[in-house]
């Protein structure tokens, strides 16, 4: 079925339909153009968003870039940026393959449609012109026939009129004969014109217009096919980028799975671990001691001479507790910076034997303790810190890492200079053997410069090695006997464990300590008096039980080993130094880190 046969009389319908098809094509082109603008704006906004949230500093200068969370976020942003690039590619493909091609094709279709309808209208005009000629000849024939009939009637009337002259009758007959002849000619002309119009009309409706309609049908079908292909290009442009977009989405998924909380915790430790020992307990300042006006041998913290006694190395075991079980001595308290509190400070409080008022002594002790607390804040650093070449302004652990980095960098530079020196030597040998290739003397300045760089770098390596050794010794001294575990238990206390053997030699220590001179400045010495028992030690009973959360290897004096999950008897609670005394079921008693235990008191 074709338009020429079935729609031979629907010229206006075909004109409207073909115009609607071209309008639809133009609407689709406009839609794709606006879709391209949307894609470009979307890609531009995505790129702006990625640029806004990307780190401003280089990765090597940004400590946050070492965390897996930050790395995953940066990777996620990069994948979004790649996704934006694919949207731009979609916009470009739509613009080139759809907008330009279909717009060009639409113009061609409009020209072709215009040509076909001009041809159809010209055929219509020709047919209408033939029909007008037919109508004119018909009216002329009709008019001539009436005039001939009228002339014949006039001639007959004059012929019968007796009063009419013969000349009048002859003239009327001639006129009637002339009109009859003219009517006959009009008839022949009308017949010829009618035959011609019928032939033209048959050609118009059965040949000429069907051909034009068939051409319009072919044009419209080609337009529809091309438009359908344009619809397909819209999806093809998307399908072309689907694999890349799938890779982008897969990259986002990989980035999400790459977040490692444990690793980030370890990275935070590596970045900010200071290496300092934990600060010790702040000593109790007993302002009530001067209130004891009557000296007594049983007074706690007040010797027989009425003066408050400061616990020093010479009086550490001068008194014993008059009751209760024997307590094993605990490690000395630590300062906030990890070291023991000094027994005397420069320009600080005098010795307890100087005869000053007890309130004055306690006041001086308070003044000596406050700077210790303030010094803890100095561990955090400040903006006004002066950066030194040996990184001594950093905490010990960070100083060690920075020195290690500098040492590795210097070693790489040194190896590079050595390789360059070897290459220059080989080149010089080649020049000496083959003078036409170059002058050996021209390499001397570069060789000299390389040797100077090597010497300079060697000195720097030695300097950094010395600094690194000093920093490592400082870190090891602060670290103590910390043991690494695959389960990563908490660090044991920075202070040394209590000496279990000291309690067995209490009387001997008392004798020796009474003869020791007063402690010097900076020497480790506790401030307050510690009392022990004066009588025989009785077997102690457990005050609770505990379970080992982590394995601990008691390698230092006073400690005891324990396995993970082992049940232990609690003999003495933690006194604030991080150590707890326990007893094993198999026998053996000693100190273990409190953080390694789950304690239950009786």
Description:
Its main location: membrane. One of its GO terms (biological process) is signal transduction. It is a single chain. This protein is mainly α and 602 residues long. It is 58% helix and 4% strand. A five-stranded antiparallel sheet has the order 4-3-2-1-5, with no helix packed on it. A hairpin with a 6-residue loop joins strand 2 and strand 3. Helix 3 packs antiparallel against helix 4 and helix 7 packs antiparallel against helix 8. The chain is elongated. The relative contact order is 0.08. About 23% of the residues have low confidence.
Summarize the structure.
The protein is mainly α and 602 residues long.
The overall strand count is 5
For the largest beta sheet, what order do the strands appear in spatially?
Answer: 4-3-2-1-5
Contiguous low-pLDDT stretches (5 residues minimum) are: 292-363, 365-383, 481-487, 500-537
Instruction: Report the structural category.
Output: mainly alpha
Cα separation of the termini: 104 Å
Shape: elongated
Largest sheet: 5 strands, antiparallel
Radius of gyration: 57 Å
Question: N-to-C SSE series?
Answer: HHHHHHHHHEEEEE
Overall pLDDT level: 76
Portion in beta strands: under 5%
Report the total helices: 9
Percent helix: 55-70%
